[in-house]
Write a structure and sequence with these properties.
By secondary structure, the chain is an alpha+beta fold. The protein folds into 2 domains: 41 residues, no CATH class; 119 residues. 38% of the residues lie in helices and 19% in strands.
Length: 168
């Protein structure tokens, strides 16, 4: 008899365990708490848009320089060059840089501003930068400032070599 009572008591306790669970109100409450924590946590996530814009502009300048190397329309043996001989330029303007990437399915959108804006840098057939308006090789370093709100990053374009780097 004792064994029978223990068995029935075990069945009653076991059936209570099978039917216990979370109610719909408890599940909704947990989901709301998780949503609030995610919203508060997103305020502490770093904003990488300035860094992404800087890296994108750096890659576009390097791409233009790479495309210019070996691209010379001047006839063989002509030592002088002009802007018409080499025409691989980059406009330091956000809308022109965004529209330049015609191969991408979704074009990159700048959220930063570039200074100097509306400045055009071209590269000759050996990768040296020159000013498009004066057709002279660059003789000084060009500082390209990229700002987003109060934060700023800077690119340096060196003359003669065309080396571009991010200044921290």
């Amino acid at each position: 008899m004792k064994n029978l009572m223990f068995n029935s008591k075990f069945k009653i306790q076991n059936s209570k365990l099978l039917h216990s669970g979370f109610t719909m109100v408890e599940l909704i409450f947990v989901i709301v708490v998780i949503g609030i924590l995610a919203y508060v946590g997103s305020a502490y996530m770093p904003d990488n848009r300035l860094s992404n814009d800087t890296k994108f502009l750096l890659s576009k300048i390097r791409e233009k320089q790479k495309n210019a190397i070996g691209y010379d329309k001047a006839p063989f043996g002509v030592s002088s060059w002009s802007i018409n001989d080499t025409h691989v330029c980059i406009d330091l303007n956000t809308t022109k840089i965004e529209n330049d990437d015609n191969r991408a399915q979704k074009p990159y959108r700048f959220s930063s501003t570039i200074k100097p804006s509306d400045y055009q840098v071209c590269f000759d057939s050996i990768g040296r930068p020159y000013n498009a308006s004066s057709e002279h090789l660059l003789l000084k370093v060009i500082d390209i400032n990229i700002t987003k709100g109060s934060r700023a990053r800077r690119l340096k374009l060196f003359p003669m070599s065309g080396y571009v780097t991010i200044v921290r």
